[in-house]
Amino acid sequence: MKCKVCGGKAVISLRAYNSALCEKDFISFLENRVFKTIKKYKLINDKDKLLIAVSGGKDSLSLWYILNKLGFNADGMYIDLGIGGYSDLSLEKVKKMSDMLKRPFYTFHLNDAMGKGIEAISKKIKRTTCSACGMIKRYIMNRVCLDKGYNVIVTGHNLDDEASALMGNLLYWKEEYLWKKGMMLNEEEGHLSKKIKPLFLCSEREMAAYAVLCGIDYIYDECPFSIGAKSLFYKELLNRLEDNSPGTKLQFLKGYLKFIRQMNIEKNRREMKYCINCGYPTVSDKCNFCRIMEKYGIERNIIFEEYRPTYEVFE
Ligand SMILES: [Zn+2]
Ligand SMILES: [Zn+2]
Q1: Is residue 262 included in any domain, yes or no?
Q2: Each residue of 217-247: pLDDT tens digit?
Q3: CB 280 within 8 A of CB 142
Q4: For the whole prediction, is pTM greater than 0.85?
Q5: Interatomic CA distance for residues 280 and 278, integer angstroms
Q6: What is the Cα–Cα distance from 304 to 107, expressed in whole angstroms?
Q7: For the segment 105-124, what is each residue's pLDDT rounded down to a tens digit?
Q8: How far does residue 201's CA lie from ligand 1's centre (Å)?
Q9: Which of 62, 98, 205, 272 has the most neighbouring CB atoms within 10 Å?
Q10: Strands (E) located in 39-121
Q11: Residue 224 belongs to domain spanning
Q12: How far is it, in rounded angstroms, from Cα 225 to Cα 230?
């Protein structure tokens, strides 16, 4: 297998693009893909202050690395869900990247702030771990942006994540989610930060290859609570489709994005109110987060620990 660009030895075949690339050309292909996605979909403005949600996994750490390489300065945010050794190890990987990029990051410790880890909280509020985790993460991420002066949350969701979420929402016609699953959610100043997903056209396999080739040290294990999750099953199904007809995942997601653009969903949005406790957008008086945590008596002492990368200062 030869590299389509330079004729050297290819390390990865990209059937969706009918291509194969060597190490060097694949790395620039992927970085260029992220850059073009940001430009084409106008994900980032000059004035934006970026905060990236990092989990310690390959996607978010690679994205942090790529953004910095492309000149988009981003600081990090890590949510310590209190899942024992898994969370500790993830945090170590985040610290390592922070030191390497010389960019600080914030940590939110669930155990300190809410008195419990994610497993105990989800039991108490009678939600599955994944749904409780999703709700808390969305809320906390928005909160840290507003508190610390950022206006954009960047997440490392890749093509496989987005395609499988779309598939799940379509299969059960979860219309409410279908209309707001764009790759960029707009900012509402003082209430909601902009959310962007610059990796949405990069597949899981491409991201794994990128992380390995660039020597990025990430946590291999999936979250222990994701085992058996439907999203993993959808990913497997989509990969089988992809094997049969390369490019299916890209088509699926791009077609959807075109469709929601044409539908002009922004106009159809419901009238938004803001939570009387915290200002978060909501359809009732209080946001979901405040309402649920209040109902089940869970403490909310929202504080962020700041980690400054270790580097020598010469004066
Ligand atoms: Zn090459
Ligand atoms: Zn609230």
Answers
A1: yes
A2: 999 887 888 777 788 899 999 999 999 999 9
A3: yes
A4: yes
A5: 6
A6: 6
A7: 999 999 999 999 999 999 99
A8: 21
A9: 62
A10: 50-53, 74-80, 105-109
A11: 27-307
A12: 12
